[in-house]
Each structure stands twice: as C-alpha cells, then as structure tokens.
Amino acid sequence: MVLQHSDRMDSLFSPQTSWVSGPIIVGAGPSGLAVAASLREQGVPFTMLERADCIASLWQKRTYDRLKLHLPKQFCELPRMAFPAHYPEYPTRRQFIDYLEDYAAAFDINPLFGHTVLSARYDETSGLWRVRASSSAGAEMEYIGSWLVVATGENAESVVPDIPGIDGFGGEVVHVADYKSGEAYRGKRVLVVGCGNSGMEVSLDLCDHGARPAMVVRDAVHVLPREVLGKSTFELAVLLMAWLPLWLVDKILVLLAWLVLGNLAKLGIRRPATGPLELKNTTGRTPVLDYGALARIRSGEITVVPGVARFGKGFAELADGRVIALDAVVLATGYRSNVPQWLQGNDFFNKDGYPKTAFPNGWKGESGLYAVGFTRRGLSGASADAMRAAKDLARVWKEATKPTKKSTACHRRCISVIF
User: Fold this and answer.
1) Sign of the dihedral through C-alpha 165, 194, 354, 179
2) Could you tell me where the beta strands, DSSP code E, fall in 211-307?
3) Rounded to two decimals, what is the model's pTM?
4) 77 and 52 Cβ atoms separated by less than 8 Å
5) Rounded Cα–Cα distance for residues 58 and 52 (Å)
6) Looking at residue 14, what is its pLDDT?
7) CA-CA distance, 419 to 416, in Å (whole number)?
8) Environment class of residue 67 by beta-carbon count within 10 Å: exposed (0-12), middle (13-18) or buried (19+)?
9) What is the largest CA-CA distance in the chain?
10) pLDDT, averaged across the chain
11) CB within 8 A of 304, min separation 6: which ones?
C-alpha cells in the first residue's frame, strides 16, 4: 500500500470518485441509448447517467396517452434494431416504449438511474472530464473520464411561459408534459396554448372526450397532411429531396397542403412565408402533421383564438380584446435543452443549449466532447449523430487503450496511488 501520494492526485480522486475507462454518457433517452448500443457493438465500455428512474423518461412519464409517432416507423428506428414487423406504420406511445426497453435489453444497456448531473467540466490540468452527479439517495459522486457524451436532448425541460395573471387564474393549469387524457376535462372549457403537433393533438383529444377546447394560434405555422394519397408526407419529402432543391420541394409541399387541406387562413391559421423544410432547418420549428384536428376546427368543435394578453379569475383576455371564460389551461408550449445549466466552461453549445455547428457536423467538440440528439431532425437525426460519435469514440478509445510499456507502467503507478 502506498501511504503517501501527491496533492494533485489526492484532489483528483476521492472515496466519492469513480474512474470511467470509456465515455461518460449523460442521458438515457433514445439518443443516449443509440450511442450506447453502437459503442457496445464495438466493445467500448461506458457509464450512462440518467436522472429519472427509467429509460426514455420523456416518453414514459411526460407524454399523453393517445400519442403516436408522427412519422412512419422506418424513420424512427434506432441503429442496429428495426421495429417489430407487426408494429403499425405509426407505432403508439406504448409500443415505442416497449421497443426502447427491448433495445436497452438487447444491447445490455444499464444506466445509473437517479443520477442527476450537477456539473460537467473539462479539467485542463489532468486532461479529463469531471462530472458531478447527485443520486436519488442524496449522495454526491464525481465521475472522471476522457470523453463526455451529452445526450440529454432537445426536450429536457418544459417551457412554461410567464403570461400575465396566470397565477391568479384559479383553475387547473398544466403543461402538456403532465397531460394524460381529455377524460379529466369532460364538459370543461379548456384553453390550449400552442398550436404545434402537441397542441393540435391535445385539442383533438379534448374533443374526443367531450371537452370544449380553444386553441391559441399566435404565430404563423405550417400545417401539412400526414399522408397524401396514402403516402406519408414526410416520406414524400425525403424522396423529393433526393432529386430536387429544397426550395422547390417546399413549394411542392405547400401546394399539396393547399390542395388537400384548403385555405387555412379562413380558419385563423396563417402560413409562414418561409417554406416548411427551410423553416425546420433554420429555426427547428417542425411543421404540424394533421390527422383530424383541422376537421374539428372546421366543425367548430375546436375554436381558434389569437394570443393571450392576460389571465384573470376564470377567464383569459385575448390579444384582440375578447374575453373567454375557462375552466382549465393546457400549456402546449414545448421543451428546451438544459445543457447550459450544467455544462461548464465550454463554448461548443450556444446559450439555448444547442451545438453552434449545424447538422451534420454538430456531433463533436474538442477535448473529447460529443453531442447526440440536438439535430432538430428527430429520431433519424439522433441516430445519425449516434453512429458518427460511436465510430469516432471507438477509434480514439482503441488508440488510447493500446498497451505500451510506458502506458502500462503509468497505469500501475496510478493504480497504486489511487488505492
């Protein structure tokens, strides 16, 4: 046993410190699972930290019952494992969760659950990443390794807007992350704030359960049919993009939407001047894929209203001066990345928690930093990043662990100092 060691090594390792021989992966959602599976196949060890008590906590704990994948299943598969053949083209929420759990089991992915990352920073002196995490039991650990994979994704935290008067509304106010079914709102007047895919689908769900929803449409939004002549609109766009420039594909999609859905301006829904694909690429705003909500808007079962100026006791005053009585509010106002809250001393991510370098080159930073799941291109984008990151990590890990006389001697000295 070595009784004395340097102050530098003493500060680096402690009883609450764990050395990770491979990458440290933060997040056990689809992005983290995808990179972990790709690493596992290449024999690279890893440690995965997850703050929840399950994989894919967004899907398991913060999604509504009727949710289905908005895109055909072939565009939502993770690397090296297809969906079961008997799954429908648009798998349900439960089917997707089952797929992810089977995926984790197939690749022997066992995250450390209940581990909330408090901070992660690169130590220039040691050339290592230091990741502090708090466990659900209250203990604090530090994980140290040469590589860090940020896989917390684009939807880590709910976005709750500060609307004047909402604290004094008096009725139920929930974010869509806590909404499960319209059954609890039967017969009630509900304002859905937000008109993205979640806002449209929640409004439709409320209708199906006998509620009286009004949906806030404040900004211009692209609404596309989910299918055209039995063909997925997304699949059609992918096919067209292989042969045509983006601007032309956008024009074709808008024309098809007009032919199938009609003039939505009459319903209070304005289209942006920028095409749907260009808008997605530049701002991350996803077009809404309709499969029933527009019909309910036309029938009057869903009322479209402008932005909210303020809330009062049991009512909302709209931007146009109208006042509507309400029993409940559902905030379909989206999610955001939480990376700026815990990743320290690094300028790879911008203030909004996205890589500054655009897709497809935003998956790798400096000093062993990798990012997976920030492409604004859904599960297919996350899978693409995961495969790139895992391939590069396997290369650098094998180089770093290649045995040499010098590295073996250094390893023995480090082991004797640590223990």
Assistant:
1) positive
2) 212-216, 223-225, 227-228, 231-232, 288-290, 303-305
3) 0.89
4) no
5) 9
6) 54
7) 5
8) middle
9) 80
10) 90
11) 214, 215, 217, 267, 268, 269, 297
Q: Which residues of 163-173 are buried (b: 16+ CB within 10 A; e: fewer)?
A: beebeebebeb
d(CA 36, CA 135): 21
Determine the topology of domain 158-329 in CATH.
FAD/NAD(P)-binding domain (3.50.50)
Residue 404, pLDDT score: 61
CA–CA distance from 199 to each of 28, 169, 190, 393 (Å)? 26, 20, 12, 39
Can 14-154+336-397 and 158-329 be said to share one CATH topology?
yes
Residues 122 and 345 sit within 8 Å (Cβ to Cβ):
yes
pLDDT in tens, 9-50: 444 555 588 999 999 999 999 999 999 999 999 999 999 999
Contact of 37 with 103, CB cutoff 8 Å = yes
pLDDT at residue 407, as a whole number: 47
Cα dihedral sign for 377, 75, 208, 294? positive
Q: What is the pLDDT of residue 408?
A: 45
CA distance 261 to 361: 36
**Of 52, 97, 57, 53, which Cα lies nearest the Cα of 78?**
97
Residue type for 117, please?
A: V
Give me the numbers of helices (H) and strands (E) for the chain, helices first please. Answer: 12, 22
Domain 14-154+336-397 in CATH 3.50.50.60? The answer is yes
- 235-238: which pairs have CB atoms within 8 A and are 24 or more residues apart? 235/72, 235/75, 237/277, 238/75
- For 242-291, the pLDDT digits (tens) are 999 999 999 999 999 999 999 999 999 999 999 999 998 888 788 999 98
Would you kindly state where each structural domain of the chain is located, as residue ranges?
14-154+336-397, 158-329
Hunting for tokens 């949906």 — which residue is that?
A: 215
Q: How many residues does the chain have?
A: 419
